[in-house]
C-alpha cells in the first residue's frame, strides 16, 4: 500500500513553507490525495532533501513567531501518557510489519523448496535453480541504493509522528498539527482555525467535537461530562484531549454569527505611538480568558469611562494578546491615550463586524488598505499567514497623513516569506494611478497554469484538455479592501470593471 504523508508534515520534512507545497498542488505539479502526498512523489520532487538541515525553515518560523507574537510549533516531547500511546500505536505498526517480513521469509523458503522439487521432477535444470537462488539471495541481502532516501524519509516521518500528530477538520478538510503537550483546541487556535469553544478549561462543553478516525487521550481534567450516547458516537472535549496519532475530527467552525458578544477587563501591555494621530494599544486578557473573535473584526474599548469601536489589528491565534489601533481624535484625545500606562485596565466588548477572511478558500489573496484601513487588513494578513492556505498574498498599502506606520514589520514578513509580497504605493499618488497599481498587483497574483488545477476558472461549456495552459482569471483571487468610504467605493468599481466577481470582493469602510 502506498505510504502517504500529510502536507503539514511534509512541509517540515522537506524544509519548505506549506504554502509552497500548496501552490505546487494547486498547479497540478505535486499530486495530492486528500491533503496527503505519496512517498514516491515526495522523492520525485525533492530528491536531494537534506533531512537534518531545517535551518531555513527554522529561520522562517522564528520570524513568524516574532512577528505574529505567538509561539511557533516546537518539536517538544509530548506528555508521558501521549508518548506512551503514540509509541504503542507505532509498536503495533512495527509488529505488523515484522509479521509480514516473517511471512515473506517463509515464502522465500518455500520458493527454494519448490525449485528443488522442480529440479527433481525435471521441470527445471539444477544450473537454473542455483543461479536463480544465488541471484535471489544477493537481491535480498543488498538493499537497493535507491531505497536509501526512501528509508531515511520514512524514518524521519516516524520520528515526527512521535513528536506530533496531524488533525484533519471535517467537513472543511483543513489540517493542523498538535505538538508537545497541546490540546486539540490549543493547537487548532494556534494554527488560526476558528474552532468553537467557551471556557477552555473543561467546564462548558462548547468545544465538543466528534472524532471520526484515530484515537485521542485526555491531557487535562474536565468537569463537563460528555453524555454517554455522545461518547459512543465519538464526541470529546477539544480543550481536554489531544491526538494519539493522526486523527480526523468533525466540528462546525465558527462564523461571525456564532461568536457571542463578550465583555472582558484587560490590562495594558504597551502603548505604541504609530503617528501623531494614532496609537496601537497592546492588551492582555486575564489568564483564564481570551476574547473570541475573528481576524478583521472590530472591538469596543472603554478608557476612562469613554467607549469607542476600533479595529482589531492582531490575530485570534495570538492567544491572550489583543492589538487595537486607536485614532486620537474626537472620542479619545491624545492626552487620554497618553495617560495609559502598562497594567492599567481597559474594558473590551465585542466582537463586531463581518469583514473576515474566507478561511476555507485556498485562492491567492490581495489585501488593500488605505489610511485607517490598515488595522483590519493587518489582522487579516496575520490570520492568512497563520493558516498558510493562500499560495500567494499581496498587500497594497496607501498611506494617509499618518504615513506607513509598522512598515518594518511588513518588510520583515516579505523578507522571510516567499509567498508574501508587500507593495506600499507612493504617498500622494493620484487615486486613478493608485488603482492602476492595484489592478497590476491583482493580475500578478491571479492564477495561471494548467487546466484542471484548482483556482483556475474555465469558461462554462469549454472542455479543455488537462495540462493545457490557460490564462489568468481574476475569479481565482480573494480581494479585501479597507479604508475611507470614497477609496473603498472607487476600488470596488474599478476591480469589478476589470472582471473581479462580486463574490470575491470584501470591503470595509472606516473613518
Ligand atoms: S471550552 Fe469549555 S469545555 Fe472545552
Multimeric status of the protein: single chain
Largest sheet: 6 strands, antiparallel
Distance between the termini: 59 Å
Count of separate DSSP helical elements: 14
Number of domains: 5
CATH topology of the largest domain, anyone? Rossmann fold
Strand content: 15-25%
> Residue share in helices?
25-40%
Strand order across the biggest sheet? 13-12-15-10-11-14
Question: Structural class, from helix and strand content?
Answer: alpha+beta
CATH class of the largest domain: Alpha Beta
| Distinct bound molecules | FE2/S2 (inorganic) cluster
Name the average pLDDT.
Answer: 84
User: Based on DSSP secondary structure assignment, what is the total number of beta strands?
Assistant: 22
Task: Describe the protein's architecture and organization.
Helix content is about 35%, strand content about 25%. By secondary structure, it is of the alpha+beta class. The chain has five domains: about 5-65, no CATH class; about 80-160; about 165-255, Ubiquitin-like (UB roll); about 260-350, Elongation Factor Tu (Ef-tu), domain 3 (Beta Barrel), CATH 2.40.30.10; about 365-510, 3-Layer(aba) Sandwich (Rossmann fold), CATH 3.40.50. The strands form six sheets. It has a six-stranded antiparallel β-sheet with strand order 13-12-15-10-11-14. Strands 4-3-9-5-7 form a five-stranded mixed β-sheet. A five-stranded parallel β-sheet has the order 18-17-16-21-22, with helices on both faces. It is elongated, with a radius of gyration of 28 Å. It starts with a strand and ends with a strand. FE2/S2 (inorganic) cluster binds near residues 202, 203 and 205. FE2/S2 (inorganic) cluster binds next to loops.
Amino acid at each position: 500500500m502506498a505510504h502517504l504523508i500529510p502536507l503539514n508534515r511534509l512541509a517540515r520534512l522537506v524544509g519548505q513553507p506549506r504554502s509552497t507545497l500548496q501552490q505546487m498542488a494547486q498547479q497540478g505539479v505535486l499530486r495530492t490525495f486528500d491533503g496527503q502526498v505519496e512517498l514516491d512523489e515526495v522523492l520525485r520532487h525533492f530528491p536531494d532533501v537534506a533531512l537534518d538541515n531545517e535551518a531555513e525553515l527554522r529561520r522562517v518560523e522564528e520570524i513568524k513567531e516574532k512577528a505574529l507574537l505567538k509561539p511557533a510549533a516546537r518539536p517538544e516531547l509530548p506528555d508521558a501518557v501521549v508518548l506512551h500511546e503514540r509509541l504503542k500505536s507505532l509498536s503495533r505498526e512495527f509488529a505488523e510489519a515484522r509479521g509480514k517480513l516473517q511471512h515473506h521469509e517463509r515464502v522465500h523458503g518455500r520458493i527454494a523448496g519448490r525449485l528443488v522439487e522442480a529440479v527433481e521432477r525435471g521441470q527445471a535444470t539444477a544450473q537454473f535453480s542455483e543461479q536463480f537462488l544465488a541471484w535471489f539471495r544477493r537481491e535480498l541481502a543488498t538493499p537497493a541504493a535507491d531505497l536509501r532516501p526512501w528509508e531515511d524519509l520514512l524514518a524521519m516521518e516516524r520520528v515526527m509522528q512521535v513528536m506530533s500528530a496531524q488533525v484533519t477538520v471535517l467537513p472543511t478538510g483543513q489540517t493542523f498539527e498538535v505538538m508537545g503537550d497541546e490540546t486539540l483546541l490549543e493547537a487548532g487556535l494556534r494554527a488560526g482555525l476558528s474552532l468553537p469553544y467557551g471556557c477552555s478549561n473543561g467546564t462548558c462543553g462548547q468545544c465538543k467535537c466528534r472524532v471520526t478516525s484515530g484515537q485521542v487521550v485526555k491531557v487535562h481534567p474536565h468537569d463537563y461530562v460528555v453524555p454517554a450516547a455522545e461518547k459512543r458516537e465519538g464526541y470529546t472535549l477539544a480543550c481536554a484531549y489531544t491526538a494519539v496519532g493522526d486523527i480526523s475530527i468533525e466540528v462546525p467552525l465558527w462564523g461571525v454569527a456564532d461568536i457571542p458578544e463578550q465583555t472582558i477587563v484587560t490590562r495594558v501591555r504597551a502603548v505604541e505611538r504609530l503617528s501623531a494621530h494614532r496609537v496601537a494599544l497592546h492588551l492582555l486578557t486575564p489568564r483564564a480568558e481570551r476574547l473570541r473573535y475573528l481576524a478583521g473584526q472590530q472591538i469596543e474599548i472603554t478608557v476612562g469611562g469613554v467607549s469607542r469601536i476600533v479595529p482589531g489589528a492582531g490575530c485570534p491565534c495570538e492567544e491572550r494578546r489583543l492589538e487595537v489601533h486607536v485614532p486620537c481624535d474626537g472620542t479619545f484625545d491624545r492626552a487620554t491615550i497618553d495617560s495609559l500606562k502598562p497594567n492599567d485596565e481597559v474594558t473590551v466588548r465585542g466582537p463586531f463586524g463581518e469583514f473576515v477572511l474566507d478561511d476555507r478558500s485556498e485562492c491567492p489573496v490581495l489585501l488593500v488598505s488605505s489610511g485607517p484601513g490598515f488595522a483590519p487588513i493587518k489582522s487579516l494578513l496575520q490570520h492568512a499567514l497563520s493558516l498558510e492556505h493562500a499560495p500567494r498574498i499581496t498587500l497594497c498599502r496607501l498611506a494617509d497623513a499618518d504615513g506607513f506606520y509598522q512598515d518594518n514589520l511588513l518588510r520583515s514578513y516579505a523578507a522571510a516569506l516567499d509567498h508574501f509580497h508587500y507593495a506600499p504605493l507612493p504617498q500622494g499618488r493620484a487615486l486613478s494611478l493608485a488603482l492602476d497599481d492595484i489592478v497590476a498587483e491583482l493580475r500578478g497574483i491571479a492564477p495561471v497554469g494548467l487546466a484542471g488545477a484548482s483556482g483556475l476558472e474555465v469558461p462554462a461549456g469549454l472542455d479543455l484538455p488537462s495540462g493545457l495552459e490557460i490564462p489568468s482569471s481574476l475569479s481565482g483571487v480573494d480581494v479585501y479592501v479597507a479604508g475611507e468610504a470614497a477609496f473603498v467605493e472607487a476600488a470596488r468599481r474599478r476591480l469589478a470593471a476589470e472582471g473581479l466577481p462580486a463574490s470575491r470582493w470584501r470591503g470595509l469602510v472606516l473613518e
